[in-house]
Design a protein that fits this description.
Helix 2 packs parallel to helix 6. About 25% of the residues lie in helices and about 25% in strands. The chain is an alpha/beta fold and about 210 residues long.
Length: about 210
Amino acid sequence: MDSSYFETRYTPHPDRKQVWQAICEYLQKFVAPTSVVADVGAGYCDFINQIHARTKYAVDTNPDGARWCASDVRFIKATTNHAIDLPSRSLDVVMVSNLLEHLSPQECSSLFDRFDDLLTPSGKIIVIQPNYFYCYRSYWDDFTHVRAFSHLSLRDFLLSRGYRILSMEKRFLPFSFKSHLPKSYLLTKLYLASPWRPRAGQMLIVAQR
């Protein structure tokens, strides 16, 4: 996405950091502290800045993303989402948050071809993604969305790519930061600890090669 998307639909919310602190604590069980991790489509670097790992990369097509990186995160400017300049078999974990819905089927396939090369033999992918099954009323309000996944179609897509599913939460988070739900570290922790997640329109799938 170019800078106009960040200025309109994806403007930074003042509570992003504390909300993502809670999300990262929830996801840390899937990321060993010794891991090499890349956040692809890193945006404001909410995940990669706060997850604990040995080596951390933020990958984005928007060069402005570099200014959001923490001091221990290396920024990689990608000319396309799949043009990631890292060595083969160099990544233990790839994070993809709210990216796949912006890619055509061919672009998505090319991105996963690149992941096939970058991930170690037991590498993991963490996907946070709008779940069309639960957010179809507002899904197309984002003018950059070109493709929709449900928890079932995304699961099957990952299986077709040779991954096995380690965890799938079809109702994980609210659809976007534009939600009217209050946003804080404590409330996010309580939300993720609860079996009842009101207005959840995003899913979480963790898969391993």
